[in-house]
Amino acid sequence: MTIRRLPETLVNRIAAGEVVERPASAVKELVENAVDAGASRIDVTVRDGGRAQIAVIDDGAGMAKDDLAIAVERHATSKLPDDDLTNIATLGFRGEALPSIGAVSRMTIASRLAGADAAWSIGIEGGRVGRPEPAAQPKGTRVDVRDLFFATPARLKFLKTDRTEQGRIVETLQRLAMAHPEITFTLNDGSRDVLKLPACAGDLFDARLERLAAIMGRDFKDNAFAVDAERDGMRLTGYAGLPTYNRGNAQMQFLFVNGRPVRDKLLVGAVRGAYREFLASDRHPVLALFLEIPAGEVDVNVHPAKTEVRFRDAGTVRGLVVGALRHGLAGAGHRASSGVAQSALGAFRPGGLPMGGVATGGGHAHRPAAYGPGLAERAQNFYRPLPGSDRGPSAPAVATTATEPSANYPLGAARAQLHRTYIVAETENGLVIVDQHAAHERLTQEKIKRDMARGGVPRQMLLIPEVVELDDAASERIISRAAELEKIGLVIEPFGQGAVVVRETPALLGETDVKGLIRDLADELAELDSALALDKRIDEVCASMACHGSVRAGRRLNADEMNALLREMEATPHSGQCSHGRPTYVELRLADIEKLFGRR
Questions:
Q1: Is 355 a member of any domain?
Q2: Same domain, yes or no, for 433 and 284?
Q3: Which tens digit of pLDDT belongs to each residue from 493-547?
Q4: What would the pLDDT profile of 378-398 be if each residue is shown by its tens digit?
Q5: Residue 572, SS3 per DSSP
Q6: I need a labelling partner for 49 at 20 to 30 A (CA). Which of 217, 340, 510, 585 fits?
Q7: Backbone angles phi, psi at 271, to 5 degrees
Q8: Residues 186, 208: one domain?
Q9: Beta-sheet strand order (sheet of 499-506)
């Protein structure tokens, strides 16, 4: 078979298959060009999900007549002045977007330089380029793409519904808007504004938080902590949500490298590792992180869509991300998501029993038919004054302790224990309900980790060693890690085939279910990499041990024990959630409680 050169139009269409996967891909390329041009406002219009029309208008630098003609040629760019692919400081640099889009659509570009007397436009239809012509256009550039994929109709069959395609476009614009809060972004579908994000003023952190709140919701702003860390010339900034503010998938994780939205496995894995001991395996944190790294330390030219990157020193990048998030989580202290309290308030159903037969202001009795006979009478009796109430208030049913709520006690003073599971505490401006088992689980885990850092976990010898029967594989896993488990206070020896004997346990655990603990640890070790030292994954092991050694639901606590638990929570990092990501307490503000009773 004879080898031949492909026609230029076919080459461009092949390139379009890589660069322009769907309408959102075209929007991404055109908006990135506008950002690189220094625009302060970018307006996007789409019709029929981008099939019929995509128009991107910016007030950036614009192009002259000669530049306009070159811009639609393949591999023509103004963003590599020194031809150095290791020093890329812009979003677009490959010079493929405009000719690729023009190869599969009818595209018109109109542009005007700042201070220029006239504007110029050029048209491309299915890869055929026209001549530059005078046009009416203010400073900046307008790119109008119509009938996308008309030249490659097979591609149209793979597009989703207009609503789905428009949703992808919205997501694309939102990601770019997060990285550039100083730019105004709008999206119109031909009949209404779908997205309107005005420029945010203030310093970088304030502007970025406002932009993130506008996109991710105000709840994120209330439940996020700032991230700011530097290492070896790299800087990581952004905001991350509290562990109790989480999602069932990773769609609300936004990662950027030098202002470029990316989907990078290394960064995603680092985020997962940082939150590992605070979230269950099926829950995901909510965050937006921005990594600034020297251009020579990252390769952004590994994928045509520029959504994947490769780091020269991946270990340092991962360490920066994990360290910054862990530091931020520790700084959040005992904070828990405000959404937990809102969910609790939403579960309340304010109301009351109708007082049938009681005369109202108009003298009429009221008895809804929905209530059975006798209920209204019982309610009426319930609301009558108690015998002897005229002699003054009776003594409180539960005596309060000497501890009083103050600003020094954010979690308040213990007032009662409900169902032998929940501690109710009074704060200066509301009340707190604490899950005693979840709270003590976190405290125990942090104590074990502190003891390990100091050189060893205090152990207690069992009066009668506990023999635990396991299957052969589980027994081998436990025995192979015996030396490492001893460092965290668990002394184990083999005891025949398929069994181990436990001679010592961590003193912190007190009386614990040794058999349950060993079986859970065997399951944990099955999921760990056998080549990875246990101290590298100690968080998971500590979490299992803490769960078995914590104050159980159903145990009655006295006032001193409850207040001691509250004080220790206030002084312990991460105490707002247990090892599985569940909140350890719910705080209800007095104002919210008053609303429930109609006082506000």
A1: no
A2: no
A3: 999 888 999 999 888 777 778 888 888 888 777 766 544 445 545 566 676 666 7
A4: 444 444 444 444 444 444 334
A5: coil
A6: 217
A7: -65, -45
A8: no
A9: 459-469, 499-506, 491-494
